[in-house]
Design a protein that fits this description.
Number of helices: 6
Oligomer: single chain
Distance between the termini: 57 Å
């Protein structure tokens, strides 16, 4: 590889893996979970879910919507709710965005995002793509409500600063 060449494929994957070997920090802010704006917006909406793999692409619609990557272990028959929201995003075409993640997981994009690629790679086989159809005019609002309230570790652009209460002194 020459100077200035953007690494792709196995070279890029190896570079990312050397930096962190599957370490993901979860920051949880329970006080934000009760905010009424997120609850009111998503109340009554039905999420769909597909196992994240190239074969599932045909099941994802081309309409606009909000999506999240969720990871869970293989114990779903024993433990009813034990998933982790890893990433929240928006798309004008869920199907196109899904396909770009398949390519990003394989480190084939020039703009591969390290944190997202690590999540996709590290949780391979345990990832689910959940989505809900949302009008294009509401995408920004719908995405921000989820990101700010769920604080997924794959998202870095959270707007919760200043919305947290001062801790109580003991």
């Amino acid at each position: 590889m020459s100077y200035g060449t953007v690494p792709k494929g196995p070279d890029l994957k190896a570079q990312f893996q050397r930096k962190k070997l599957g370490t993901f920090e979860f920051l949880l802010y329970p006080e934000l979970w009760s905010e009424l704006d997120c609850r009111a917006y998503y109340c009554g909406k039905q999420w769909a879910e597909v196992h994240f793999s190239p074969r599932s692409r045909e099941l994802v619609p081309a309409e606009s919507g909000i999506y999240m990557f969720v990871s869970r272990s293989g114990y779903s028959e024993f433990i009813s709710d034990h998933s982790y929201v890893l990433y929240v995003g928006k798309a004008t075409s869920l199907n196109s965005r899904y396909y770009s993640y398949i390519r990003e997981q394989r480190y084939l994009l020039d703009h591969t995002r390290e944190r997202v690629a690590e999540l996709l790679d590290h949780f391979e086989g345990w990832l689910y793509f959940r989505y809900i159809l949302v009008p294009a005019s509401e995408l920004d609002q719908a995405e921000n409500l989820l990101k700010d309230n769920l604080t997924p570790p794959g998202n870095t652009q959270l707007k919760i600063i200043g919305r947290l209460q001062e801790p109580m002194e003991l």
